[in-house]
Amino acid sequence: xxxxxxxxxxxxxxxxxxxxxxxxxxxxxxxxxxxxxxxxxxxxxxxxxxxxxxxxxxxxxxxxxxxxxxxxxxxxxxxxxxxxxxxxxxxxxxxxxxxxxxxxxxxxxxxxxxxxxxxxxxxxxxxxxxxxxxxxxxxxxxxxxxxxxxxxxxxxxxxxxxxxxxxxxxxxxxxxxxxxxxxxxxxxxxxxxxxxxxxxxxxxxxxxxxxxxxxxxxxxxxxxxxxxxxxxxxxxxxxxxxxxxxxxxxxxxxxxxxxxxxxxxxxxxxxxxxxxxxxxxxxxxxxxxxxxxxxxxxxxxxxxxxxxxxxxxxxxxxxxxxxxxxxxxxxxxxxxxxxxxxxxxxxxxxxxxxxxxxxxxxxxxxxxxxxxxxxxxxxxxxxxxxxxxxxxxxxxxxxxxxxxxxxxxxxxxxxxxxxxxxxxxxxxxxxxxxxxxxxxxxxxxxxxxxxxxxxxxxxxxxxxxxxxxxxxxxxxxxxxxxxxxxxxxxxxxxxxxxxxxxxxxxxxxxxxxxxxxxxxxxxxxxxxxxxxxxxxxxxxxxxxxxxxxxxxxxxxxxxxxxxxxxxxxxxxxx
Length: 574
Hints:
It is built from four helices and 30 strands. It is mainly beta.
């Protein structure tokens, strides 16, 4: 696989060189030889707490930057990086410190460093890797993509219960063909754990096993008429659950995939039809994913389900946009589970612009998906934007309803006044056919906010009341938060803000969060921001205070180098 990827990179450079020679020399000479712009941001964060069990580091810094360079107005080379001295703990074996660049020339685009690519939802879908990739689009009808790199780094288990991971390498390619009447796409993705990347005894029954996976899919889309489209995709995934065990089995392994040992085969397919009408768009979709379908090219995957849905969207009524989706869903496709469920799935979304001042949005949905539910406690106690980077609380959400009303009380050259209210209900659960009781969480959230702005003096004040009720099988949690914040801009380069939040939970836990921030812009390129925060947590048993300080400096620049009258001329804003 490594030799194959090197060949791809070699062909990429070869094509780039041939095209550069054929480029109009006169246009290249007239263009700036080098054009560059970018920026640098550094944050210094200090934390101090009266709580002896406080786990955050007393000092940490985060450094990030980006540089976009263009040569002769034809070759682009963006570069980005990030670094921190604060090791981010998380359930995914990926570091926060990273470096990436994406050079491109005309129809050639490359990926280097930490990056991600998408082939298909059933093969490679957004998984980050350290390596390289390429996308070739020699003409509008053809596109070729390839990648190879490290998907996971090796992580040894420890006494704290850290989930071990093997070093995992992966690669693949995708080919697309676009036509006036139809599109065609095919992709193959291969990933394999390196068996010797962990030193821990693999004979332990609780130890993670090294895996080998190859998956692929083919998709076709037909445009029968100008307003009728049919799409179909079929995917296969082969998984060897323990390639270490395969070494003890006699026989020869396949060159591409080790087909000895614990082998599983999965499939998935999806088809849809869509028709555009004068009153809107109507369509239908069928999707089936076999039980235990998985691929090493995706972080999360929902399997063992069958969906049949129909959707309709229209804006035939003035100022009203409406979209509806209804269907049937069932799981336990092979009748192997102790429980199963069958249900009607649906979603309705609407947006009403009643007048220039009043707008209403709402939605109701019970379509299964993955969503990140932010913990209200983490929000009100957070002292900086990096504090909860390792939060990965993904929950399968079964039902959501949402409504929001926005009303402009006043809007003129002097004053803006805005009132916003919203309510959300979420139900995250696992429903069983033989148990009618609710199993999971019910989350109710209500919000009311008011904003007032004096435009001539650039002064803004806002207040928000938020009520959150989380009903869980073991306990209930109620949180009332009141937030008041002000912001003022002085002489266009200096700004200051003050925010205060008071939260009460279970009548015994009181949290006061005060944030004071200020910013200064120097020479339009240098930005300095300083924020101070204090979180006072009183729960009836103990009283703790956490102090935080965050100083951030950011710098932006742009420059170019060109040749005029046989002399080089450098221009730039620094």
